[in-house]
Amino acid sequence: MTVESYQRVQSDMVFDRIKVLFDSFGGSNYIGESVSITEHSLQAAYFTAKKSSEDEVIIASLLHDVGHILGLEIHQKMEMDGCGVEEHESVGANFLKKLGFCDRVCNLTRCHVQAKRYLCFKRPEYYQNLSEASKTTLKFQGGPMSVEESSSFESDSDFQNILLMRECDEAAKIPSSELTFTVPPLEHYRSMMASVVDASQYKGSYVLSDFQKDFFNKNSFVKIENLLSFENIAPSDVSTWTQEVSNLEKQEGKWLQHWEKSESGDKIMCRSENFVNFHENMRNLAMNSILNVVSQLFGEKAVLFKEKINYKLPGGAGFAAHQDSPAYIGLATDHISVMVAIDEATVENGCLQVCPGQWDSNSNVPLTSSGIITPEAEKAMVYQYVPCRPGDVLFFGGYTPHRSTANNSKSSRRAMFLTYNPESQGQHHAAYYQAKHAKVQGFDGAHTISFQGDFQGQIVE
Q1: What is the 3-state secondary structure (H, E, C) of the chain?
Q2: Which of 140, 169, 277, 362 has a CA 20 to 30 Å removed from the CA of 400?
Q3: Residue ranges of the Fe2OG dioxygenase domain (predicted)?
């Protein structure tokens, strides 16, 4: 691939990260106004392009409120009396910097709130013309500037462009039913966006926001709803690949297939393992954006440790409260597991439950002799259900306590689990499955599918 081709691919991925953000969450109402965030953003860019020919200024207008959408992406409760994300201008600018946008775009994005504060100081009548939502947010943004702040703000080399952006920001609140002109769609700005992005600064496929990383660091789990959309992978694709894996016939030393006896006495499939190296689409799924996101969470490159599909068909058993890493027979010390929801996961069909917190190898959670969390420790924990739609991707730490109930519904709850460890802790995939094959072959009648006793069903051949 030539340098030009590589840069084009990278800039396209930057655009696609922005696109899935707007597609997934831009349809939400814009902080108390009569337009959506996407409508507001596109109108702002349209008005700016009428008065400026500079790509950086137009793109900054388009993306000035990206920080609000990032808050919606993590389902963060709206702050500022329900009118948006506090310091959204800095959150957005930091995110754009991660994506490789030039300093000027990031700085213009960061300054659009300051323009409102400046104008409220400089022109008292400006405040009176603000919408009620904009007046509300001003209280949380520092209010009108002081004399000293305004003097410093006026010295900015982009002072006039910042004011222009603010003018267009205020104008961009026209309900779609009242528009008398055509506003270009987001795709219109693809090539323009590429011109203000330094592709060499882009660090990978799907880039996490600070909100997503902070949520994971605080809770030891985070759900991402638009990751597969970024990869142009439909939930139906993953369902098809899962069916193909479930149809693989047993072959010595390769994939593993497990069955259980359901509550009605039927033999049903409960798990497939070790299939990534034998199924191209599953390998691509595991080794692209998912691996990249895990690497961001680790802060270093990740490698695949193991993989499985838990089918949890109707009547399928649940899993006792446990942590994953203690079951990994000393192969690496840190792990992150990734659940890809194949079917809808609900409370009724036994969706995952997690215990939020900052869990790690020093948490010293009491375990039974079979490796699950003791009943006393489990009782003291607060678990929350994590319902998922097909295609949702849930990341959780190797020491995050989790559990699930049996599937008492009539619908399947299939889910894929991909586990990773930091590359600095070694490559253990082959060693893990060598040990797992030996465990299954030498099984004495209990818990064939795990190195610990978390599975609550009855395994059958």
Answers
A1: CCHHHHHHHHHHHHHHHHHHHHHHHCCCECCCCCCEHHHHHHHHHHHHHHHCCCHHHHHHHHHCCHHHHHHHHCCCCCECCCCECCCHHHHHHHHHHHHCECHHHHHHHHHHHHHHHHHHHHCHHHHHCCCHHHHHHHHHCCCCCCHHHHHHHHCCCCHHHHHHHHHHHHHCCCCHHHCCCCCCCHHHHHHHHHHCECHHHCCCCCCCCHHHHHHHHHHCEEEECCHHHHCCCCHHHHHHHHHHHHCCCCCCCCCEEEEEECCCCCEEEEEEECCHHHCHHHHHHHHCHHHHHHHHHHCCCEEEEEEEEECCCCCCCCEEEECCHHHCCCCCCCCEEEEEECCCECCCCCCCEECCCCCCCCCCCCECCCCCECHHHHHCCCCEECCECCCCEEEEECCCCEEECCCCCCCCCCEEEEEEEEHHHCCCHHHHHHHHHHHHHCCCCCCCCCCCCCECCEEEC
A2: 277
A3: 300-422
* pLDDT for residue 461: 77
Tokens 């191209």 appear where? 280
Residue type, 56: E
Looking at residue 76, its pLDDT comes to: 77
Tokens 């059958």: give the residue. 460
Give the distance between the most distant pair of CA atoms in the chain. 81
On the CB side of 339, how many CA atoms lie within 13 Å of its CA? 27
Extract the tokens encoding 41. Answer: 């953003």
Question: Contact at 8 Å (CB) between 319 and 406?
Answer: no
Query: Which segments in the chain show pLDDT lower than 50?
Result: 443-447
Q: Which residue has the tokens 């270009």?
A: 184
Distance, CA of 63 to CA of 44 (rounded, Å): 9
Contact 295, 289 (CB under 8 A): no
Strand partners, 404: 319
Residue that has been written with the tokens 């253990």 in this structure = 428
pTM: 0.91
Q: pLDDT value at position 136?
A: 80
Q: Give CA–CA dist 161/158, Å, rounded.
A: 5
